[in-house]
Amino acid sequence: MQTVVAQKSDKVDNVVLQNYKKLVLDGSITYLPIYKVNRKKVMPVVNAVDTIVKKDFSKIYNEDWSTTVFNTYWRSKQNKHPFLLHFEDTIFSSPVDHKMVVTSRYGWRRGRPHQGIDIDLRTGDNVKALLRGKVRYARRHGGHGKTVVIRHYNGLETVYAHLSKYLVKENDIVEKGQVIGKGGVSGNARGSHLHLEVRYHGKSIHPEYLFDFSQDTKIRANDIVVTKKWITPRSHRSTRKSKIVVQTNIDETLNEIKNPTKSIYIVKKGDTLHGIARKHDTNVSEICKINEIRYNSVLNVGQEIVIY
Fold it and tell me: Which of 285, 223, 222, 271 is nearest to 249 (CA)?
């Protein structure tokens, strides 16, 4: 009789490499070899997968941990992209009890980056955790007012701002859907709403790229590749919903970056660089750089514009 274990026997002649187990450590993928061996000739072994996962959880919770600093990665220069995020859950909890209405989106807003989304609520409404995690920060922070930051099992952090009341404290373990505070207008807020941010190693990510803020409350995939576009507010507009195309294979993404697909757009009457950029889900600076033209260049009908 044979079985599959995650540790190699000392006797090489009894071992056959069968497969690999994919693990996610600090947001990066690693592979654990799986060997097929003869059960009678192998002593019981420690479950290597469980050991690694437990160690990883501890590392994520304690890495750059601070209960007094909002962005603990502010000195880090690690901001590499693309990177992979892994989710064990398939759905998240709505941060509000009622239907989610997004009143302002991630992107450029009034000449400044809006690094989260605003969800409508009334002062005193419940605010709930999207996923299980540990409270890293629960105090006032600049224009955010009363703010709670929760770090989750995959290193992701969710930020809940403009609260009127805290119902958790630093280092508390919170469950998915647990009420963590009450909505309000603290900080720089124009009317009561929840300002929700999603961050990884200090960089904000477009929340709607990871989470579907509809009635289904689905996480868009178990493995999500985050590219530069989705951590750059200037690539989006707070007044309109971005076109969401989730990438799940980091190898394919890297190949696309190395070998981008080129398309040609023919300028029509009334076209502007801003309009062309919005139509192709890119930004004006990228178009100008690729085509070696200036921001205020005059476009001519029939002119060819290269877009990647």
Answer: 223
pLDDT of residue 44: 38
Q: How far apart are CA 94 and CA 96, in angstroms?
A: 5
Q: What is the pLDDT of residue 204?
A: 96
**Rounded to an integer, what distance in angstroms lies between the CA atom of residue 125 and that of residue 98?**
9
Judged on CB neighbours under 10 Å (0-12, 13-18, 19+), 103 is middle
Q: What is the C-alpha to C-alpha distance for residues 142 and 255, in angstroms, rounded to an integer?
A: 41
Sign of the alpha-carbon dihedral angle for 88, 71, 29, 116:
positive
| Segment-wise mean pLDDT, segments of 10 residues, the chain, 308 residues | 44 50 59 53 39 46 88 76 92 97 95 95 98 97 97 95 98 97 95 96 96 96 94 91 92 76 87 86 85 89 88
Residue 108 neighbours by CB under 8 Å, 6+ apart: 114, 233, 234, 236, 237, 238
Q: Can you read off the two tokens belonging to residue 236?
A: 């989006």
Nearest Cα residue to 291 out of 267, 257, 270, 256: 267
88: left (phi over 0), alpha (psi -120 to 50) or beta: alpha
Specify the 3-state DSSP secondary structure of 59: helix
Place of tokens 């239907």: 99
On whether the CB atoms of residues 228 and 98 are closer than 8 A, the answer is: no
